[in-house]
Specification:
Elements lengths: L1 H18 L6 E7 L3 E2 L7 E4 L8 E13 L2 E3 L1 H9 L8 E7 L4 E7 L3
Parallel strand pairs: 4-7
Antiparallel strand pairs: 1-6, 2-3, 3-4, 4-5, 6-7
Length: about 110
């Protein structure tokens, strides 16, 4: 009986350091569309404000950045065209996924249905 108890305690003790190794790799921001400035080219920079009173943050994008409109991945050119058709930019939100280690935006997503 004591062996099972000791084995359980030992396994739990070994699992604790693994639980403490979590770290944040990426952050997602929900941004009002009016606070977003898209890049001109696929390997440029994107600027966004996380709140109206905040300063603009400028982050690099790459050709691997995913541009998703209504659940469909597309090129930056098509994404820009889809965004340009939105009339009410004050009440639309876009999600920007920022990879912290690479300091790059890896995904920009909006649903406008």
């Amino acid at each position: 009986m004591k062996t099972k108890y000791l084995l359980s305690v030992l396994l739990l003790a070994l699992a604790l350091p693994a639980a403490a190794d979590f770290r944040t790799v990426a952050e997602a921001y929900e941004i009002e569309l009016i606070n977003l400035r898209l890049p001109q080219i696929a390997a440029g920079t994107i600027s966004y404000k996380t709140c109206d009173a905040c300063e603009y943050q400028t982050t690099r994008v790459s050709t691997d950045t995913r541009w998703i409109l209504n659940g469909r991945a597309m090129s930056l050119v098509n994404f820009r065209q889809g965004i340009a058709e939105i009339k009410d930019r004050n009440n639309r939100y876009v999600t920007v996924l920022h990879h912290l280690e690479d300091d790059r935006v890896t995904q920009v997503q909006i649903t406008i249905r």
